[in-house]
Design brief:
By secondary structure, the chain is an alpha/beta fold. The protein folds into 2 domains: 156 residues, Alpha-Beta Complex (Quinone Oxidoreductase, Chain A, domain 1); 126 residues, 3-Layer(aba) Sandwich (Rossmann fold), CATH 3.40.50.720. The protein has 9 helices and 15 strands. The strands form 3 sheets. Strands 3, 4, 5, 6, 7, 14 and 15 form a 7-stranded mixed beta sheet that branches. It has a 6-stranded parallel beta sheet with strand order 10-9-8-11-12-13, with helices on both faces. Helix 7 links the parallel strand 11 and strand 12. Helix 3 packs across helix 4. The relative contact order is 0.16.
Length: 313
């Protein structure tokens, strides 16, 4: 079975084609013949060795990838599920050694797998699970109510875009940052107020809302530069775990791995795609042997939408 992975941490060039043993679905699992694997920033951090200390006892090769979409082709014996052979599905994957999304076949718990949204392709559906679940977790942690205000940094990115759209779907007033060339995109996602992207994001938001926002989802790691936008007693959600002791603000460390196996939440996101609340954005597709090129493009920054490995080509 083909996969893309690496034996040693490093630059994109360490990525290589691998030949791995075929996997089978055991009790409580389905096997998915993967058609699409999305490339995310977390994959590049893994490849570069950002989690090397915690991976010392994990055997190589390492296969990245937290998003997949494909077709169910095997169901574990005595497994109870509404899924059937041939269903087009999507899932979030938590990588462990060679168990990552950059492979053409994977066995996953039925609690992680849901059907793809109607009227979408497998390529499109593969961009939803991890980023949208991260956005969902951010909003769940912040716990804002309809009518309250939320700021989003990195709103033109995949995570940030999903936060904007999910926040609007739950009745929040959304402030977002954007470079001039991304302003139209961010407004189209539903942001009520768009301020210029940059180090002065806090003052730009306070100029519009002097009292400050009730919560902030920090998708571009602005950290202390964005903190001033949040009112006293507000909330700050960080996907990198940053926090401060300032002004009794509540800090939330967002770890989407805590939503592993939450097919219920992923299925809600599927319905929101079908109902037009969430937009799926694909920037470009790559063949498996072009994975290093895709990593280089993502690390060059500025990609709008997601890069996806297609195993069907």
């Amino acid at each position: 079975m083909r996969a893309v992975g690496f034996y040693n941490f490093g630059e994109p060039s360490v990525l290589q084609m691998l030949d791995l043993p075929e996997v089978h679905a055991s009790f409580g699992q389905v096997r998915v013949r993967v058609h699409a694997s999305t490339i995310n920033p977390t994959d590049t951090y893994l490849r570069k060795g950002a989690r090397a200390d915690s991976m010392r006892d994990i055997s190589a090769p390492h296969v990245p990838g937290m998003d997949i979409a494909g077709v169910v082709d095997e169901i574990g014996a005595n497994t109870k599920t509404d899924l059937v052979i041939g269903d087009q599905v999507m899932a979030m994957v938590v990588p462990n050694s060679s168990h990552g999304g950059y492979r053409e076949s994977i066995a996953l718990s039925v609690n992680s797998v849901v059907k793809i949204p109607r009227n979408t392709t497998l390529i499109e559906a593969a961009t939803l699970p991890m980023n949208a679940l991260t956005a969902r977790q951010s909003l769940d942690q912040l716990g804002l109510k309809p009518g309250q205000t939320l700021a989003v940094t990195g709103a033109a990115g995949c995570y940030g875009g999903y936060v904007v759209q999910l926040a609007k779907a739950q009745g929040l007033r959304v402030f977002a940052d954007a470079a001039s060339h991304d302003e139209e995109l961010v407004r189209s996602l539903g942001a009520d107020v768009v301020v210029p992207r940059g180090d002065d994001i806090a003052s730009n938001i306070r100029n519009v809302l002097p009292s400050g926002v009730d919560g902030l989802a920090d998708g571009s790691f602005q950290n202390e530069k964005a903190l001033g936008a949040v009112r006293d007693g507000g909330g700050f959600a960080s996907v990198r775990g940053w926090s401060s002791q300032e002004r009794e603000i509540s800090f939330y460390k967002i770890s989407v791995r805590n939503y592993d196996g939450r097919a219920d939440l992923l299925d809600q996101l599927r319905l929101q795609v079908e109902n037009g609340f969430i937009t799926l954005r694909v920037a470009q597709t790559y063949t498996p042997d072009q994975a290093a090129d895709a990593h280089r493009r993502l690390e060059a920054k500025g990609t709008r939408g997601r890069l996806v490995i297609s195993w069907s080509s």
